């Protein structure tokens, strides 16, 4: 499997957005869990570019703007015509007192806090603020960030959707797309159900889905992924390791969905690892490549916090996987029998 490009068609403008099947997730460059020096961040981005990766994703949330600011320097070195960049809208960063800084999982961040705002004004401000941090209008895709999340559960999601559709947020996205300032619109979320709900309301080009279609989860096969095919909607798959366990295996302290993995998941991962071992295939390689078996999935975007991790991701992505592995996983009931699996000829450059 090579870093081939696949086109996702923007239905409104008929402009193909070319994505390398292995992309780059920019959350670690926002100092996710630990501080990264600026020089190391730039070396990480250079390693991704040198490896042939041309799709990069970032967001205001990642380090409260730090990830975008680090991308701004790389944009001066990279060929903008060959690069595809996505960032996210709906989380506006505002100045605040030191005690009000939104900590989340990022360290050494600017003195900002996050305000969710999916209104027309919120989307436009978020977009313009990202341009200022990036020091460039090189934004190809805008993704609604975590419109499905919030401290008040369903009530918060409904509030966000009201702002999006009743207070002009979606209109802001379509105006930017129709003006040619961006090529595609979508959402970056953690649940496939909100994507399906959004598709029932409006015209989106794609979704960045964190997890939810992995070796451990294939529920989107029932309705959501078939709908994506029908509507010509592409999926960017983040979190292919379910926050860790499909990369580490069922080791002590392994994480599933950002919390310690329950024993039921640990047992299933042990079985997945055993089948992979019989085919001399690392579990992490099967996990990274599996989602691309579905034609709706255009790219997978693991993160990397240094150049070595980028090179490791590329090596994992290019690890040959025998088709018999996928067959055995189905026979053992470890993945669904109706799950499409990667075939090397379909992904070769």
UniProtKB/TrEMBL annotation:
InterPro entries: AKR (IPR020471), NAD(P)_OxRdtase_dom_sf (IPR036812), NADP_OxRdtase_dom (IPR023210). Signal peptide: none annotated. GO terms for cellular component: cytosol. One of its GO terms (molecular function) is oxidoreductase activity. Residues 22-329 form the NADP-dependent oxidoreductase domain. It comes from the Bacteria. This is D-threo-aldose 1-dehydrogenase. It comes from Yoonia sediminilitoris.
